[in-house]
């Protein structure tokens, strides 16, 4: 799969058929931006169910930093699957769970004590960060930027800015969310340093 190759129109008939099945079987909560249906992928190239090869510019919305099916990752997955697929960390500890937490603590910047908690989704991680912050500070307010996306749980929807796209019809939302525009230091007055501009913007 080294190049783009089109053998049908995009989307092709098999893609359209699979998308129709998806629409009949799944809820609307998961957005669908294209009519493509993918069969396999490697590197940055995907092959749809009609046999067209295309360049993937979405990258799993940021979760495929190593590309699709890289040999080293596939080998590691196969090796791990032969030993242990899953063990709930609440029930028992296991080596890879502890090792990845240790590595994240090691590479995280800052000369402070560090611990890691692994979550299933970004929204769950954001909610955990809010809960830990509230417990540590004793304060309830959460500051977010205009235009930011944080997730689709109740708390993270409250923190997310795009109302019509993610929030319409789902309220009421969690209170104590405060938002302001991201300080664009490129637009700051010439007399201000970047730090002064950020402080002024927040005030």
Lay out the secondary structure:
Blueprint: H1 13-25, E1 38-42, E2 45-48, E3 53-55, H2 59-62, H3 71-81, H4 95-107, H5 122-137, E4 142-145, H6 154-159, H7 163-167, E5 177-180, H8 194-202
Parallel strand pairs: 4-5
Antiparallel strand pairs: 1-2, 2-3
Commentary on this structure:
The chain has helices spanning 13-25, 59-62, 71-81, 95-107, 122-137, 154-159, 163-167, 194-202; strands at residues 38-42, 45-48, 53-55, 142-145, 177-180. By secondary structure, it is an alpha+beta fold. The termini are far apart. The mean pLDDT is 90.
Summarize the structure.
With 203 residues, the chain is α+β, with helices and mostly antiparallel strands.
Residue windows where pLDDT falls under 50 for at least 5 positions: none
Q: Residue-averaged pLDDT, rounded?
A: 90
Strand percentage: 5-15%
Percent helix, as a range, is: 25-40%
Radius of gyration: 22 Å
Total DSSP helices: 8
Q: How is the main sheet built?
A: 3 strands, antiparallel
Q: Given the helix and strand composition, which structural class is it?
A: alpha+beta
Order of helices and strands: HEEEHHHHEHHEH
User: Strand order, biggest sheet?
Assistant: 1-2-3
């Amino acid at each position: 799969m080294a190049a783009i190759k089109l053998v049908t129109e995009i989307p092709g008939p098999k893609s359209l058929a699979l998308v129709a099945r998806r629409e009949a079987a799944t809820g609307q909560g998961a957005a669908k931006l294209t009519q493509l249906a993918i069969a396999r992928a490697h590197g940055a190239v995907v092959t749809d169910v009609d046999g067209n090869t295309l360049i993937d510019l979405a990258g799993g919305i940021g979760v495929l930093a190593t590309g699709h099916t890289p040999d080293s990752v596939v080998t590691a997955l196969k090796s791990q699957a032969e030993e242990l697929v899953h063990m709930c960390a609440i029930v028992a500890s296991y080596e890879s769970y502890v090792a990845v937490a240790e590595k994240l603590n090691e590479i995280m910047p800052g000369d402070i004590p560090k611990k890691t908690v692994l979550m299933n989704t970004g929204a769950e991680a954001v909610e955990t960060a809010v809960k830990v912050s509230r417990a540590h500070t004793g304060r309830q307010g959460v500051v977010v930027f205009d235009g930011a996306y944080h997730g689709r749980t109740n708390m993270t929807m409250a923190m997310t800015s795009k109302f019509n796209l993610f929030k319409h019809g789902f309220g009421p939302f969690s209170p104590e969310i405060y938002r302001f525009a991201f300080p664009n230091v490129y637009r700051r007055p010439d007399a201000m340093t970047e730090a002064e501009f950020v402080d002024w913007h927040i005030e």
